[in-house]
Design brief:
The chain has 22 helices and 13 strands. Strands 3-2-1-4-7-9-8-10-13 form a 9-stranded mixed sheet, with helices on both faces. The chain has a two-stranded antiparallel ribbon with strand order 5-6. α1 packs across α7. About 1% of the residues have low confidence.
Length: 616
Amino acid sequence: MADITKLETELWEAADELRANSKLSSQGYCMPVLGLIFLRYAWGRFKRVDEQIDAERAKIEGRKPPKDPADYAAKGAMYLPEEARYDYLVSLPDEQDIGKAVNDAMAAIAKENPNLQGVLPDTYTELGNDILREVLRIFNNKALDEDGDDIIGRIYEYFLNKFAPMVASDDGVFFTPKSLVRMIMNVLEPERGTMLDPACGSGGMFVSASDYVRDHGGNPADTMMYYGQEKVDYNAKLCLMNMAVHGMQGIIKSGDEANSFYHDAHELEGKCDFVAANPPFNVDKVKWSRATDAGRMPLGVPKENKKGEVSTSGANYLWINYFYSYLNDKGRAGFVMASSATDSNAEKQQRRKLVESGDVDVMLYVGNNFFYTKSLPCTLWFFDKGKPYELRDKVLFIDAQRYHTAVSTTLNEWTSWQLKNLSAIVWLYRGEIDKYEALLDEYRAYAQGAAPLFGEEEDELLGISEPADFIRAHDAMQRFIERQKTEARTEVATLPKRQQKKRREALAEEVKRLEQAATVISEAAWLTEKFGVGEYRDVAGLCKIASRAEIKGDQDADKSSWSLTPGAYVGVPPVEDDGIDFHDRMHEIHAELVELQAESNELMATISKNFEAMGL
């Protein structure tokens, strides 16, 4: 597996050479670089889908139908004419004008995809042949294909955020981390209908929605219609490129008419099956009169400050109003919002109206460091106007701040298995036990596949039937891993020094594979320890189903905060008893401190004598 952080750095350094060795400004070279990643991304998807189509055609007896661009779109890829394929560009001879060839590639793609006319960059002849060829070569890194879209999507995200200060407004927050987007889709379950993102940025919500449809056996081209608003034209172009790469089409509007604070550009109020967004929150300078004239405020009009503007907290609730207003009578919404919005005092009457409507479905608190450019926490809000009667009076609160995987010291994410576990809590709240049981079957199948790696502990993994078996299996895996580490150290120590490094690296890779498998089973243990065979229960510090009466509290309705802060309901996890007697341990610490102090005094006396002997 590629070292993603190292790869990001290497590719960024290569791209930055374009700026250093060309006449382009920092802002001017952003789109050409992202265009090259676009080509590489499109080529990776095209290759995988082309192989799938060839495999399907091989099973057809007799005359085989010709390949059609629609075949690629149905599988989530964009058809690429030969002159637009990355391997063709990389293999061009040295004397070829590479800039013109890349421009021609972009033109060929736009011809196949009319929605990309005027969107793709066409300034590659300005970059210089040698440096452009070198960047193309570096971007052809095979590591980008190791994990398919996951790794190249991360690279795309990384580049977007590196460019953010140069090209975008609102701090450049136009890319939502993939794990947050996928969590939103897992709760919304968008398999058919109309979806709107009124702050669509680079289109991540649409791409993830389409992935969700395909993962569940559908074709989004047949079942979904996407509408987007993005006031920054640059971001709208990225959105169209992103959607095209995935074989998708949608109607994206940009510019002044797409400023959602002042315009319903698609006239979709009350018409959407799904709304998904990561809007720029905590913004200021929103004109109160223009915003109120634009309407879409079923929860109430925000207050006007002395400058004739909406406050930052009020602007957050403008977004919340919009998302709610766009839904039809069965619609669902999922969006990212500043955590302060869950209990801001000025907007409590709007929250009260939401809670009393019965349409608040799930509130999920996310911890720090999920964004490249922001370290602050956020909350995922979910509305469902089609909630069943038995859940109308309830809201599921999840506090996931302690549940994530650290990618680096400054970046966290949810792995695919952690996403499934968080989704499982929602399934149980909704009474969808069959989905929970299917997930347990996935974990069992994974354990069976990993079992041969664990030698004498194999039976523990093959014998998983009850939920508690996952914990025992994980313990067995950990024992085996520790033995492997010990044996590896012993083996390396017996080798000649010239052979040690290579063997140590090989053994480390083997241990890494074992640890990755153990991590998956640890997620199964985490889930089943809390919910067994599939019965929802409130878990302190993680989740709670709260009634409308609990959200209102014991106070008079007008005095209640109507808080939607997950932490206010789920509480904190119990402190595990470590088996240590507090008083005994304090006596031990005190004794250790006295001993260390005596040693310190003795050392200082020795140092003083040495200084005296030196005449100092």
